[in-house]
Write a structure and sequence with these properties.
The complex is a heterodimer of chains A (about 130) and B (about 290). With about 130 residues, chain A is α/β, with parallel strands linked by helices. Chain A has one domain (about 5-125): 3-Layer(aba) Sandwich (Rossmann fold), CATH 3.40.50. In chain A, about 40% of the residues lie in helices and about 20% in strands. Chain A has helices at about 15-25, 40-45, 65-70, 90-100, 110-125; strands at about 5-10, 30-35, 50-55, 80-85, 105. The longest helix of chain A is centred in the C-terminal third of the chain and has 12 residues, at about 110-125. Chain A is globular, with a radius of gyration of 13 Å. By secondary structure, chain B is of the alpha+beta class. Chain B has a six-stranded antiparallel β-sheet with strand order 3-2-1-6-5-4, with helices on both faces. In chain B, helix 1 packs antiparallel against helix 2 (about 135-150), helix 1 (about 20-125) runs parallel beside helix 4 (about 245-270) and helix 2 runs antiparallel to helix 4 (about 245-270). The longest helix of chain B has about 110 residues, at about 20-125. In chain B, about 25% of the residues are buried. Classes of the chains: A alpha/beta (about 130), B alpha+beta (about 290).
Chain lengths: ~130, ~290
């Protein structure tokens, strides 16, 4: 039986969240949980175990960079790969996110194949 | 080599030589001549042997040459055969490469189509997911901002008499900075307002061509029940969005066809205080 992976998608835009879920559903054996901001994301992380996290940056209540910082101090998830998916495209934003502990940085508008390829790479899934 | 001087006997041609002497002289002469002939024969034999050895050597050399020519000939035939096969294989490889390239193109087309369908599916679902006017407007902005990559947006609605386009919502630009546009059919200047006006009047999507440097990036008409209801201006795109493509045009078509209907439905629910119509009133309308 092949392993099942658990993915947390943290995104305040319902449209964007649905698009990401649709893209990720093309991957086999990946179960997806949604959260609509950083606080909701932390709540989900406290009650579950995830193998990968996708998060936006600009979200109300708690933004994505604060979420990344918090995840990296969580003993259950400090090594979990994190992909930032954002409209912010400056090199400074990218560097900051990677310094805080994100593993990848993808700008919107997204190309589904790019997101899928990155998740596959970080989860070391066969193509 | 026979020593002739040792064999010299009495001369044969002397008349007074006795028969024994003549006999001895004849025998000596005979044997001498025999010896000379033998020497000659031996010499000739040696010469012939040398000649034979030479001829044998030449023969071997010629045989080798012939065998070598034959081998070369065989090699040439093999080379020709291999060349033909190589050409055939190259031709096959080229065919496969062409086929592979077509498959790659087709795969890319299919991926783009899938991307477009996924965007349209999500956009349609989300556009009609709410009956609150602010949520519908936010969904319109999300569609343009997150799916298309628009950085600054202005949404205009036409007045009832169609003489003005009034800005009703914006993103990435202050709403107060957007002016009301008088719908003047004689406007010809290539300004943003003129393009918006033309989009509203013609119902045609405008997408900036690469030869045009000034904004807007795009204008999208808003239709309702086959009539022009307004227009959306995309003033600028996110830095990472180089240009608009077929997927974006499909989303613009969707907005043109459905955004106004979603807003009107939300408005109707809001002004109806969220009340659903009674079965009787619905039945009356359906009959």
């Amino acid at each position: 039986m092949s392993a099942e992976y658990s993915c947390l998608v943290v995104e305040d835009s319902p449209m964007m969240r649905q698009l990401l879920v649709l893209a990720l559903s093309r991957l086999r054996n990946v179960r997806i949980t949604e959260a609509d901001d950083g606080v909701d994301g932390l709540r989900k992380l406290a009650t579950g175990r995830f193998d990968i996290i996708l998060t936006d940056i600009n979200m109300p209540i708690m933004d994505g960079l604060k979420l990344v910082k918090r995840v990296r101090t969580d003993p259950n998830h400090k090594d979990v790969p994190i992909i930032i998916i954002t409209t912010e495209s400056s090199e400074e934003d990218r560097r900051r996110a990677l310094q805080l502990g994100a593993n990848a940085y993808i700008t919107k508008p997204i190309q589904a194949p790019e997101v899928i390829a990155k998740v596959r790479e970080l989860l070391k899934l066969a193509t | 080599m026979i020593d002739k001087s040792a064999r010299a006997g009495p001369p044969v041609d002397q008349p007074n030589a006795s028969p024994a002497h003549q006999r001895d002289a004849f025998l000596n002469s005979f044997f001498r001549r025999g010896a000379e002939l033998t020497d000659e024969l031996v010499r000739e034999n040696e010469l012939y042997r040398e000649r034979i050895a030479g001829l044998e050597k030449e023969n071997t050399s010629l045989r080798t040459a012939v065998a070598s020519n034959s081998a070369i000939h065989d090699l040439l035939v093999t080379i020709e055969r291999l060349e033909s096969e190589k050409q055939r294989l190259l031709s096959t490889v080229h065919e496969h490469e062409t086929l592979s390239s077509r498959f790659r193109e087709r795969f890319h087309e299919a991926e783009t189509e899938l991307e477009s369908l996924a965007n349209l599916h999500v956009a349609t679902q989300q556009l009609h997911s709410s009956l609150q006017v602010p949520s519908v407007m936010q969904n319109i902005m999300d569609l343009l901002g997150q799916l298309v990559g628009a950085e600054s947006i202005g949404v205009y609605f036409a007045t009832t008499d169609g003489t003005e386009l009034i800005p009703i919502a914006s993103a990435g630009v202050e709403l107060s900075s957007l002016a009301t546009i008088a719908v003047n059919r004689e406007t010809v200047s290539p300004s943003t307002e003129a393009i918006l006006e033309r989009t509203y009047l013609t119902g045609q999507i405008y997408i900036r061509e690469s030869s045009v440097e000034s904004p807007p990036e795009a204008c999208v008409p808003l239709s309702f029940q086959k009539k022009a209801a307004g227009a959306i201006a995309v003033y600028s795109l996110l830095p990472q969005k180089r240009c608009l493509g077929p997927v974006d045009r499909a989303l613009f078509d969707l907005l043109d066809a459905q955004a106004t209907a979603a807003l009107v439905a939300a408005y109707a629910v809001t002004t109806g205080h969220g009340l659903t119509p009674s079965p009787e009133s619905l039945r009356k309308l359906c009959s």
